[in-house]
Amino acid sequence: MLIRILIVGAPLIAGGLAVFMPLDLWREMRSAIITALSVIGAASLIRLSRGFPFANMDSLDLEESRRLAIAVRKTMLALRALIIVILFAMGGLIALTPFMAFIGSLDISSALISVSQQSYSFVLAFIIVYSFCRTFMVIQGDISLFDLQADLLEQSVRRKNADAASEIAGAPETKSFKNPPGYGEVLE
Question: Are 112 and 80 in contact (CB under 8 A)?
Fold first, then answer.
C-alpha cells in the first residue's frame, strides 16, 4: 500500500515542483532523460521477450502452474504499462520544442503563456517520475515472480524426493548376495 502511495505521490510532488521550472531547462535535460528512459524501455522489452521464465513445467501440478501463469501475466502487463508510460514521457520531451514554438506564436496574454508552460512542465515531470516509479514496481514484481518460482521449484523437488523415497520403500526386499564356496581362493 505504501509503495502505491509513493508511486502516485512522488510524481505529484515532482510535478508540483516542476511548475516553477522553466521549459528551457527541460530542453537542456532532454537528451539525458531520453537516454535513461530508452535504457529502461530496452530492458523492459528484453524482459518482455523472455516470456515464461520456467524451464521444467512437467514438475508442477495444475494449481502451481496456474499460480505461476497468473504471476507471469501480471508481470507482462506491468512491463507493457511501463513501456507505454515511457513512450508518453519520450513523446512529451520530443514535443517540447514544437510546443514552445506554438505557444510563442500565439497572440495570448503572458499569464496564459505562463500557465500553459507550467502545465506542460507539470505533466512532463509527473510522467517522467511516474515512469521511474513504475520501473521500481516492475522490478518488485519480477522479484516476487522469482520468489514464487523458487518456492514452486522447492515444492517440486520435495515431491519428487518423496516419490522416490516411497518407491524405494515399496520395492521388494532383495536377498543378500553370498559368494559361492571357494570364491577368491588361489587356484594351483
Answer: no
Cell numbers describing residue 93: 520531451
Helix/strand/coil for 55: coil
Please say if the pLDDT value at position 65 is more than 90: no
Domain that residue 89 falls in = 2-52+59-158
Residue 105: DSSP 8-state = H
C-alpha cell at 58: 512437467
pTM greater than 0.90: no
Rounded to whole angstroms, the Cα distance separating 19 from 122 reads 5
Task: Compute and round to an integer the Cα radius of gyration of the chain.
Answer: 31
**d(C-alpha 113, C-alpha 179), whole Å:** 103
Amino acid identity for residue 104 in this structure: G
How far is Cα 104 from Cα 28, in angstroms, rounded to an integer? 18
Q: What is the DSSP letter of 182?
A: T
pLDDT at 77 over 70: yes
Could you give the CA distance from residue 53 to residue 28 in angstroms, rounded to a whole number? Answer: 40
Q: How far is CA 25 from CA 22, 125, 129, 150, in A?
A: 6, 12, 16, 46
Q: How many domains does the chain have?
A: 1
